[in-house]
Amino acid sequence: MARLLGIRIKNFRSLKDVAIGQVKYGSGEALPSLICFIGPNGSGKSTLLDAFGFIADCLKDGVEPACDAPHRGGIDRLRSQGSEEPIEFEIFFDSDDEGRPIVYNLQIGSDEKGIPVVVKESLRQRRKGEAGGKPYYFLSLKNGAGKVWAGQHVGGRDSKLASRVKLDDRSRLGIGTLGNLSDHPRITMLRRYIEEWYLSYFVPDAARERPPAGAQRWLDRRGGNVGNVLQYFQRQDPENFEAILKRVTASIPGIKKITVTTSDDKRLLLKFDERGYKDPFFQQSMSDGTLKMLAYSVLLADPAPRPFIGIEEPENGLYVQLIEVLAAQFVQQTRRKKAPTQILVTTHSPYFVDALKPDQVWLIRKGTDGFARAKRVADLPNVAEMVKQGIPLGSLWYSEHFGRETEADE
Ligand SMILES: Nc1ncnc2c1ncn2[C@@H]1O[C@H](COP(=O)(O)OP(=O)(O)OP(=O)(O)O)[C@@H](O)[C@H]1O
Ligand SMILES: [Mg+2]
What we know:
The chain is 29% helix and 26% strand.
């Protein structure tokens, strides 16, 4: 399975030009398994996370619906103010092949009618067996037309081996179309990987609804089907079902037992037995934090978890003492030998950051031009040293050892 090494984002809202992790071939430090963004309000943390949601939506629904999603408001509001250039993402992926990351470049602009379209799209990789040297294109599309090289290894100058392609719909990503063809295993791998990203837009009220009963394998973005996923585990994987419930009952005081049942009108009911009460409660009566912990437990205890999970401010609505526990659970998840996950979070909580290391945290701040800058906390002066002396990272942040906002340009 692929893994994210780094990303450069250009002209996406306040991210005029921001890079994190490895964004050069052959140099730069790859992103860790847990990536955390901190920084003042309005600095660009949610935007960074939504960049991944946007790429996933472009692949799933096409570029125009992705731009027009209610929280994005169309391509003109998405493009960095004052910029005429396309929105651009350059993503470095590890492809289980040491020294040969795959580089995916995607550029989105508007056509003559102002409708968002894919302007350029390419994939590059170093040739098999070459320890150095530049990567070669194995997909190169401009305005929906160009070349693609089939198979695992070829690309670049071997023009004879390339096939000409022309996409019918410029709103669709080439990796979506070509990634469905078995001749292109590298593109298929990348398509599948991005399709498996999970970007959480958890809404407690969605988890309070009573959806139709029926087992579902994957949690949806808003968490509205958390009961259906539990029903899947209850039926298909009782051992993991118990593990999920154990996590929740251990975290939320008073909850003794959770059961999944079906009402007479075939709706799904989550029954919570609480200490001190004779009758159980159902999901409609449960607190925001309880439902949130339940959704995270479903995500984290999954035996075949998503390879990449993005979560906004996971601490919201959680009791202070639970925040560090949750952060530790995230860290543990990313360290799993079998099926590890890469987790990206934004946070305002020093307690959450206390559980992290300086190379897992990026400080996002606005420069004097209004655009975002990203700085890894490990690269700030003295921070790594003070952590080595035993001072928790969140305390350092809280006591302004990460500098003040006005220093973003340095
Ligand atoms: N098209 C654009 N061009 C430049 N900047 C933009 C554009 N659209 C939004 N912004 C800026 O991005 C900011 C929003 O950033 P974002 O929501 O990512 O902040 P955040 O770090 O998540 O803040 P919070 O901590 O409050 O959640 C806006 O306040 C605005 O300054
Ligand atoms: Mg935000």
